[in-house]
Specification:
Layout: E1 9-14, E2 17-21, H1 30-44, E3 50-56, E4 59-64, H2 70-83, E5 93-100, H3 108-115, H4 119-126, E6 131-136, E7 143-146, E8 161-164, E9 168-172, E10 175-178, E11 183-185, E12 188-192, E13 213-218
Helix pairs in contact: 1-2
Protein backbone atom coordinates (compact mmCIF):
# COMPACT_ATOMS: atom_id res chain seq x y z
CA UNK A 1 0.00 0.00 0.00
CA UNK A 2 1.13 3.55 -0.70
CA UNK A 3 3.15 5.26 2.04
CA UNK A 4 0.73 8.22 1.79
CA UNK A 5 -2.00 6.16 3.46
CA UNK A 6 -2.18 7.30 7.11
CA UNK A 7 -1.44 4.85 9.89
CA UNK A 8 -4.11 3.72 12.38
CA UNK A 9 -4.09 4.42 16.10
CA UNK A 10 -3.31 1.72 18.66
CA UNK A 11 -4.13 1.48 22.34
CA UNK A 12 -3.93 -1.31 24.89
CA UNK A 13 -6.95 -2.30 26.97
CA UNK A 14 -4.74 -4.36 29.26
CA UNK A 15 -1.53 -6.41 29.06
CA UNK A 16 -3.01 -8.89 26.56
CA UNK A 17 -5.50 -6.84 24.57
CA UNK A 18 -4.64 -4.38 21.77
CA UNK A 19 -7.03 -2.24 19.70
CA UNK A 20 -6.28 -1.04 16.17
CA UNK A 21 -8.52 1.97 15.46
CA UNK A 22 -8.74 3.81 12.14
CA UNK A 23 -11.98 5.68 12.80
CA UNK A 24 -10.23 9.04 12.94
CA UNK A 25 -8.56 8.68 9.52
CA UNK A 26 -10.69 11.19 7.67
CA UNK A 27 -8.76 10.84 4.41
CA UNK A 28 -10.02 7.27 3.92
CA UNK A 29 -13.52 6.20 2.97
CA UNK A 30 -15.33 3.77 5.25
CA UNK A 31 -15.11 0.84 2.84
CA UNK A 32 -11.33 1.20 2.56
CA UNK A 33 -10.86 1.44 6.33
CA UNK A 34 -13.10 -1.56 6.99
CA UNK A 35 -11.34 -3.70 4.38
CA UNK A 36 -7.98 -2.78 5.89
CA UNK A 37 -9.25 -3.71 9.37
CA UNK A 38 -10.56 -7.08 8.23
CA UNK A 39 -7.44 -7.87 6.20
CA UNK A 40 -5.17 -7.22 9.19
CA UNK A 41 -7.53 -9.14 11.50
CA UNK A 42 -7.57 -12.21 9.26
CA UNK A 43 -3.79 -12.24 8.84
CA UNK A 44 -3.11 -11.74 12.55
CA UNK A 45 -5.37 -14.66 13.47
CA UNK A 46 -2.73 -16.89 11.89
CA UNK A 47 -0.22 -15.79 14.54
CA UNK A 48 0.22 -18.21 17.44
CA UNK A 49 0.19 -15.36 19.94
CA UNK A 50 -3.21 -14.02 18.82
CA UNK A 51 -6.12 -15.90 20.40
CA UNK A 52 -8.87 -13.91 18.71
CA UNK A 53 -9.36 -10.84 16.52
CA UNK A 54 -12.76 -9.16 16.80
CA UNK A 55 -13.62 -6.66 14.06
CA UNK A 56 -15.89 -3.71 14.82
CA UNK A 57 -16.79 -0.51 12.99
CA UNK A 58 -13.41 0.69 11.65
CA UNK A 59 -11.48 -1.05 14.42
CA UNK A 60 -10.32 -4.48 15.54
CA UNK A 61 -9.42 -5.81 18.97
CA UNK A 62 -6.70 -8.43 19.33
CA UNK A 63 -6.86 -10.82 22.27
CA UNK A 64 -3.40 -12.25 22.86
CA UNK A 65 -1.72 -14.88 25.02
CA UNK A 66 -0.22 -13.77 28.33
CA UNK A 67 3.35 -13.97 27.06
CA UNK A 68 2.72 -11.62 24.12
CA UNK A 69 4.57 -8.35 23.63
CA UNK A 70 1.90 -5.92 22.40
CA UNK A 71 4.55 -3.68 20.82
CA UNK A 72 5.49 -6.60 18.56
CA UNK A 73 1.81 -7.13 17.67
CA UNK A 74 1.49 -3.46 16.79
CA UNK A 75 4.53 -3.63 14.50
CA UNK A 76 3.14 -6.73 12.77
CA UNK A 77 -0.18 -4.97 12.23
CA UNK A 78 1.53 -1.94 10.69
CA UNK A 79 3.51 -4.13 8.29
CA UNK A 80 0.28 -5.78 7.13
CA UNK A 81 -1.44 -2.40 6.88
CA UNK A 82 1.26 -1.20 4.51
CA UNK A 83 1.10 -4.39 2.40
CA UNK A 84 -2.63 -4.18 1.70
CA UNK A 85 -3.99 -3.54 -1.78
CA UNK A 86 -7.43 -3.91 -3.34
CA UNK A 87 -6.88 -7.62 -4.08
CA UNK A 88 -5.58 -8.57 -0.63
CA UNK A 89 -8.85 -9.33 1.15
CA UNK A 90 -10.38 -12.51 -0.22
CA UNK A 91 -13.56 -13.54 1.55
CA UNK A 92 -16.44 -15.81 0.66
CA UNK A 93 -19.28 -14.48 -1.48
CA UNK A 94 -22.86 -15.34 -0.49
CA UNK A 95 -25.99 -15.03 -2.61
CA UNK A 96 -29.09 -14.72 -0.40
CA UNK A 97 -32.62 -15.23 -1.80
CA UNK A 98 -35.14 -12.85 -0.26
CA UNK A 99 -38.92 -12.78 -0.26
CA UNK A 100 -39.71 -9.08 -0.44
CA UNK A 101 -43.15 -7.93 0.62
CA UNK A 102 -45.85 -10.00 2.25
CA UNK A 103 -46.67 -10.31 5.93
CA UNK A 104 -43.02 -10.35 7.02
CA UNK A 105 -41.98 -7.12 5.26
CA UNK A 106 -43.44 -4.73 7.79
CA UNK A 107 -41.82 -1.59 6.37
CA UNK A 108 -41.44 -2.18 2.63
CA UNK A 109 -44.34 0.04 1.55
CA UNK A 110 -43.50 2.79 4.03
CA UNK A 111 -39.78 2.81 3.11
CA UNK A 112 -40.55 2.92 -0.61
CA UNK A 113 -42.88 5.88 -0.11
CA UNK A 114 -40.35 7.69 2.09
CA UNK A 115 -37.65 7.24 -0.57
CA UNK A 116 -39.94 8.31 -3.42
CA UNK A 117 -39.75 4.89 -5.07
CA UNK A 118 -42.13 2.14 -6.03
CA UNK A 119 -41.77 -1.12 -4.12
CA UNK A 120 -40.26 -2.70 -7.23
CA UNK A 121 -37.68 0.09 -7.48
CA UNK A 122 -36.78 -0.31 -3.81
CA UNK A 123 -36.28 -4.05 -4.25
CA UNK A 124 -34.20 -3.46 -7.38
CA UNK A 125 -32.00 -0.98 -5.50
CA UNK A 126 -31.47 -3.36 -2.57
CA UNK A 127 -30.47 -6.16 -4.97
CA UNK A 128 -28.27 -3.94 -7.17
CA UNK A 129 -25.02 -3.96 -5.19
CA UNK A 130 -22.52 -6.32 -3.58
CA UNK A 131 -22.33 -5.64 0.16
CA UNK A 132 -19.27 -5.91 2.41
CA UNK A 133 -19.61 -7.76 5.71
CA UNK A 134 -17.98 -5.23 8.03
CA UNK A 135 -18.30 -7.06 11.33
CA UNK A 136 -20.50 -9.37 13.40
CA UNK A 137 -22.31 -7.98 16.44
CA UNK A 138 -25.56 -7.38 18.34
CA UNK A 139 -26.37 -11.12 18.39
CA UNK A 140 -24.56 -14.27 17.16
CA UNK A 141 -24.38 -14.24 13.37
CA UNK A 142 -25.75 -10.70 12.93
CA UNK A 143 -23.64 -9.21 10.12
CA UNK A 144 -23.42 -5.47 9.63
CA UNK A 145 -23.16 -5.08 5.84
CA UNK A 146 -22.21 -1.76 4.25
CA UNK A 147 -22.84 -0.54 0.73
CA UNK A 148 -26.56 0.27 0.84
CA UNK A 149 -27.41 2.62 -2.07
CA UNK A 150 -27.91 6.23 -0.93
CA UNK A 151 -31.34 6.31 -2.54
CA UNK A 152 -32.69 3.89 0.09
CA UNK A 153 -30.77 5.05 3.16
CA UNK A 154 -32.82 6.26 6.12
CA UNK A 155 -32.44 6.41 9.92
CA UNK A 156 -33.40 3.64 12.32
CA UNK A 157 -36.96 3.45 13.61
CA UNK A 158 -37.80 6.04 16.28
CA UNK A 159 -39.34 3.25 18.36
CA UNK A 160 -37.70 -0.20 18.03
CA UNK A 161 -39.91 -3.28 17.79
CA UNK A 162 -39.93 -5.67 20.72
CA UNK A 163 -39.87 -8.63 18.31
CA UNK A 164 -38.33 -8.97 14.87
CA UNK A 165 -38.71 -12.47 13.38
CA UNK A 166 -35.72 -14.63 12.51
CA UNK A 167 -34.68 -14.20 8.88
CA UNK A 168 -35.93 -10.63 8.57
CA UNK A 169 -33.98 -8.60 6.00
CA UNK A 170 -33.54 -5.04 7.17
CA UNK A 171 -31.96 -1.69 6.35
CA UNK A 172 -30.84 1.29 8.45
CA UNK A 173 -28.36 4.07 7.75
CA UNK A 174 -25.86 2.91 5.14
CA UNK A 175 -26.18 -0.77 6.09
CA UNK A 176 -28.32 -3.83 5.55
CA UNK A 177 -28.59 -6.91 7.76
CA UNK A 178 -30.46 -10.14 8.41
CA UNK A 179 -31.74 -11.04 11.86
CA UNK A 180 -30.34 -14.52 12.71
CA UNK A 181 -32.88 -15.09 15.51
CA UNK A 182 -36.05 -13.60 16.95
CA UNK A 183 -35.09 -10.45 18.83
CA UNK A 184 -35.94 -6.79 19.40
CA UNK A 185 -34.78 -4.49 16.62
CA UNK A 186 -34.94 -0.95 15.31
CA UNK A 187 -34.20 -1.46 11.61
CA UNK A 188 -36.68 -1.24 8.73
CA UNK A 189 -37.85 -4.71 7.65
CA UNK A 190 -38.24 -5.04 3.87
CA UNK A 191 -38.16 -8.81 3.37
CA UNK A 192 -37.45 -12.27 4.70
CA UNK A 193 -35.04 -15.09 3.93
CA UNK A 194 -35.11 -18.78 4.82
CA UNK A 195 -31.31 -18.99 4.90
CA UNK A 196 -29.94 -19.91 8.34
CA UNK A 197 -27.45 -17.29 9.50
CA UNK A 198 -26.30 -18.99 12.70
CA UNK A 199 -26.19 -22.64 13.72
CA UNK A 200 -24.23 -23.62 16.85
CA UNK A 201 -23.80 -27.16 15.50
CA UNK A 202 -22.15 -25.87 12.31
CA UNK A 203 -18.45 -25.06 11.91
CA UNK A 204 -18.17 -22.14 11.62
CA UNK A 205 -21.43 -21.41 13.39
CA UNK A 206 -21.91 -18.05 11.65
CA UNK A 207 -22.63 -18.14 7.91
CA UNK A 208 -20.99 -14.73 7.40
CA UNK A 209 -17.53 -13.56 8.47
CA UNK A 210 -15.92 -10.11 8.35
CA UNK A 211 -14.45 -9.59 4.89
CA UNK A 212 -17.12 -11.66 3.12
CA UNK A 213 -19.40 -10.14 0.49
CA UNK A 214 -23.15 -10.62 0.03
CA UNK A 215 -25.62 -10.19 -2.82
CA UNK A 216 -29.40 -10.36 -2.51
CA UNK A 217 -31.72 -11.79 -5.15
CA UNK A 218 -35.51 -11.63 -5.15
CA UNK A 219 -37.25 -14.95 -4.59
CA UNK A 220 -40.54 -14.97 -6.44
Amino acid sequence: MSETIPKPDFYALNDTCLVLDCGTLGDLEHVQKQRLVNFVAKKMLAEDTVIDAVSADESVTFYCSTSTDLVTIERQCLRLWEQFDSTSLVGQHHVIPVIYGGDGAFDLQKVAKHCGLSEAQLIEAHCSVRYDVDFIGFQPGFAYMSGLPKAIQLPRLDLPRTLVPKGSVAIAGDKTAIYPANSPGGWHIIGHTKVSLFDASRNPASLFAPGDTVSFVEEK
